[in-house]
Amino acid sequence: MLQRLSLYWINHLVVRWQLILTIAVLWLGSAWLKAHYGQDDSNLWIVMQQFLLIIQWVIIGLFSISLFTAVSTWLFFVYKVKQKQIDLQVQFGEGQRAEAGFVKLIMTLSGSVIRPLLGTIRARLIFKEKRLSDVILLDNDVFKKRGLVRQAIKGTGKIMLHNRGIYDVEKVHLLFCDMFSLVALPCSVPFSQQLYTLPKEQERSKVSAQPNSTEEQKYRIEIPKRVEGEYISYKEFESGDNIRRIVWKIYAKSGQLVVRIPETKDPYASHLYFYASFFEGMDLQQGVFDAELLNMYKDKVRNLFEALEKNGYDVRIPQDQEIPKLSGMSDKKNELFQITAATWQKASPPSTYVNVGKAAFVCLSALTPVSEIEILVRNMPMNVPIVVVTLSDSIPSPFQISLKDIFFRAEKHPVDKLRKPWFISPLRQRIQKNEVEIEKVLKVRGNAWMASAIIIK
Q1: How far is CA 48 from CA 38, 41, 43, 414, in A?
Q2: DSSP-derived pairing of the beta strands 448-451 and 386-389
Q3: How far apart are CA 222 and CA 270, in angstroms?
Q4: Among 96, 206, 103, 215, which residue's Cα sits nearest to residue 159?
Q5: CA within 20 to 30 Å of 435's CA: 176, 193, 249, 342, which one?
Q6: Between the CA of residue 389 and those of 378, 383, 437, what are the distances in Å?
């Protein structure tokens, strides 16, 4: 928290380290020359002194022009913002959502916006709790159609949004930088928007599940499901059957007269209830690892959800917690958003959350106490699969490297800084111990297994 706040306020500093370094180098260089040649009355020193004087004034002149254009364009922009004559537009991924990772961001400033001479305008999104996004450089001009008048400036880039969840944008922070990047004049533009990042897609799994028998013929669906008919089943020809339904290809091969059963559609079908519990009993206490464990678990839940959809049923995920609503988002049920917005919770353990009469598939995390899993294994019908996602391997080991890492520098990842602390973490040891106990409990049941944190099998 302290590190995040310090980074936020450092971003408001006007003087950059380049200015301090430049002044220090010029002062030290000048002091060194005076110390070694200042007492010399030779013609060489007189010429050198005049040359240094010219360089000094040229540098001062360039710096003055650079600073003047930066300050003047910044003051003009601040005035326009106060007059509400600046329009800001932000396009994020697909609009309001994107998959976690590097997310495409397009930012447009419309109105009277002038860049400093040979300088730049840089922008950052400011999220809730003073979190900063990566920098976007507004370096493209937007002109009117068939015109030469610029109406806006635009920047396109990618920002890292690693955590799967909701991001509340509170404002956009702009920096007017001069041509030498000696100063960065800040200005904040009010902007409010809610964005969310989906769990990452993984290699599609093959998971079979059937709706619980007690749910059949209870819920009407909008599009009736085909239950039998042409290309599904046949019957022998009987008196009164329509001869146009005779399958002549079968008759030619076997000499048997069969007819296609007229297609019927059932206006009712069972929903497949997928119970994904976010209960944790390890007392994470908002530690440094809880967010990454949650990220990995959400990825696995999404993977299972999409695999279950392939069974042809309407998959529903009962909530084990209250899910916040996003502004501008329709009221239509969105299971992917439900998975995205979920957090670890302690109020609803699996033994009370999972309805054994409805459940068609149950997914738990390795943060679930063994006692809770024992209750489910004892009460759940044998035809209902139970999957427990391991989390001890969610954060890779610091000793885990690939062959390409030997020859190429690996791309930096937000999880890299957690590898060493996680390897020696007491929490990891507790989770490993819990996973061993869970595996013993699941062995007594045929339709239950542990799922790797890397790939759901």
Answers
A1: 11, 11, 8, 52
A2: parallel
A3: 12
A4: 103
A5: 342
A6: 19, 19, 13
Q: State the pairing for strand pair 120-127/131-132.
A: antiparallel
What is the separation of C-alpha 367 from the centre of its chain, rounded to a whole number of angstroms?
A: 22
Helix (H, G, I), strand (E, B) or coil at 60: helix
Q: Which of 55, 217, 187, 46 is nearest to 123 (CA)?
A: 187
Question: pLDDT tens digit string along 128-184?
Answer: 878 888 899 998 888 887 777 788 899 999 988 989 999 989 889 999 998 888 888
Rounded CA separation 196/98 (Å): 7
pLDDT (mean) for 278-288: 81
Nearest to residue 119, comparing CAs of 133, 142, 137? 137
Q: For the chain, what is the radius of gyration of the CA atoms?
A: 33
Distances (CA, A) of 454 to 178, 296, 324: 47, 8, 29
Looking at residue 422, its amino acid is W
116: which 2 tokens? 């400093």
- Mean pLDDT confidence for 351-360: 89
Task: Answer yes or no: is pLDDT of 457 > 70.
Answer: no
Q: How large is the average pLDDT for residues 250-265?
A: 71
pLDDT at 10: 65
Spacing of C-alpha 308 from chain mean position? 22
Q: Alpha carbon of 419 to those of 3, 394, 413, 424: distances in Å? A: 19, 10, 11, 9
Length of the chain: 457
- What digits encode the pLDDT tens for the residues 55-114? 888 888 888 898 999 999 999 999 999 988 889 888 887 777 888 888 899 999 988 888
Q: Do 370 and 434 form a contact (C-beta atoms < 8 A)?
A: yes
Looking at every residue in the chain, the average pLDDT score rounds to: 81
pLDDT in tens, 362-400: 999 999 999 999 999 988 888 889 999 999 988 888 776
Backbone φ and ψ of 394, nearest 5°: -65, -40
Verdict on whether the full-model pTM lies above 0.90: no
Task: State the amino acid at position 61 in one-letter form.
Answer: G
Sheet holding 150-161: strands in order across?
87-92, 101-110, 150-161, 140-143
CB 275 within 8 A of CB 319: no
Q: What are phi and psi of 403, to 5 degrees?
A: -65, -40
- Say if residues 320 and 348 touch (Cβ distance below 8 Å): yes
Q: Are 127 and 167 in contact (CB under 8 A)?
A: yes
Domains and CATH numbers, the chain: 1-198 (2.60.40.150), 222-268 (no CATH), 272-451 (no CATH)
Reduced to 3 states, what is the DSSP secondary structure of residue 46?
helix
Would residue 145 be called left, alpha or beta, if left means φ above 0 and alpha means ψ between -120 and 50 degrees? beta
